[in-house]
């Protein structure tokens, strides 16, 4: 069901001790200051911290646990990998799939991501599926065709019931870690396009019910403006999720 959602993607940052301290600060600040926010919050730390951080999150509260990736197989001889079922067994609810850094540095293709989606859903996780174009694609005026293909090849193979569990994140690659943010008009234009594609692939109800996040240098200064757009339901936050004050301000933007 469509909701306001703010997810913090820590990427490969923080030590265990720093991570625990950050989460304690966030939970305290959210409890003190963000009680009026309508946003569901997801914190996505690195794998080794998940279980302990999950234990720090207030039971039944609005802060949930997410992972940044999972393997496409349920179990087996895949040294160094982590399955969706393992994540679920330590209390993880959400998993980010298809972040552009995974696509770029780890060669993740739409074909592989479609398998990861199935694995995540099979384990009862809620995927946050990322799509987004490069600067060259945008400058060549091919953004919409590119996104259409990413959605079709990576995501739209899911059944209606499976798709119901998915959150989509639009993360233009040119805005990730660069300090450049899409303008709220650029974000809105793409989010409306994504919703239109969902309506075509599924139906109007599915499109209206899908939560679509913006990601890419979203921060405490620009969140309110981005989230005020009718098709922007929240954010997948990188660097600003590592600072309790900034992350709380973003949550308070709702
Ligand atoms: C960013 O904000 O840079 C992100 O990549 C969030 O996932």
UniProtKB/TrEMBL annotation:
Gene3D superfamilies per the UniProt record, alphabetical: Aldolase class I
Keywords on record: Cytoplasm, Gluconeogenesis, Glycolysis, Isomerase
Enzyme Commission no: 5.3.1.1
Known catalytic reactions: D-glyceraldehyde 3-phosphate = dihydroxyacetone phosphate
Cell compartment(s), UniProt: Cytoplasm
Main location: cytoplasm
Organism domain of life: Bacteria
Protein residues bound to substrate: 9-11, 177, 217, 238-239
Gene Ontology cellular component list: cytosol
A Pfam family this chain is assigned to: TIM
InterPro entries: Aldolase_TIM, TIM_sf, TrioseP_Isoase_bac/euk, Triosephosphate_isomerase, Triosephosphate_isomerase_AS
Keyword flag Chloroplast: no
Record's function text: Involved in the gluconeogenesis. Catalyzes stereospecifically the conversion of dihydroxyacetone phosphate (DHAP) to D-glyceraldehyde-3-phosphate (G3P).
Similarity comment: family membership: Belongs to the triosephosphate isomerase family.
Record text on subunit structure and interactions: Homodimer.
Protein's UniProt name: Triosephosphate isomerase
Source species of the chain: Hymenobacter persicinus
């Amino acid at each position: 069901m469509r909701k306001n959602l703010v997810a913090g993607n820590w990427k490969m940052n923080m030590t265990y001790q720093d991570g625990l301290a950050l989460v304690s600060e966030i939970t305290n600040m959210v409890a003190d200051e963000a009680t009026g926010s309508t946003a569901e919050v997801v914190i996505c730390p690195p794998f080794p911290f998940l279980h302990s951080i999950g234990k720090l999150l207030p039971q039944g509260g609005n802060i949930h646990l997410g992972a940044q990736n999972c393997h496409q197989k349920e179990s087996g001889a895949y040294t160094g990998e982590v399955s969706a079922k393992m994540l679920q067994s330590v209390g993880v609810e959400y998993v980010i799939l298809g972040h552009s850094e995974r696509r770029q540095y780890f060669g993740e293709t739409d074909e592989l991501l479609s398998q990861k989606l199935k694995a995540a859903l099979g384990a009862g996780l809620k995927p946050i599926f990322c799509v987004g174009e490069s600067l060259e694609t945008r400058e060549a005026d091919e953004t919409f065709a590119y996104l259409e293909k990413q959605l079709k090849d990576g995501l739209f193979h899911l059944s209606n019931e499976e798709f119901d569990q998915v959150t989509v994140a639009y993360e233009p690659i040119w805005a990730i870690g660069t300090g450049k943010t899409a303008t709220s008009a650029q974000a809105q234009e793409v989010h409306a396009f994504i919703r239109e594609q969902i309506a075509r692939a599924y139906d109007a109800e599915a499109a209206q019910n899908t939560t679509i996040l913006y990601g890419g240098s979203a921060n405490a200064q620009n969140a309110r403006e981005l989230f005020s757009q009718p098709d922007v339901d929240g954010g997948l936050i990188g660097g600003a999720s590592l600072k309790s004050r900034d992350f709380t301000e973003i949550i308070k933007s709702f």
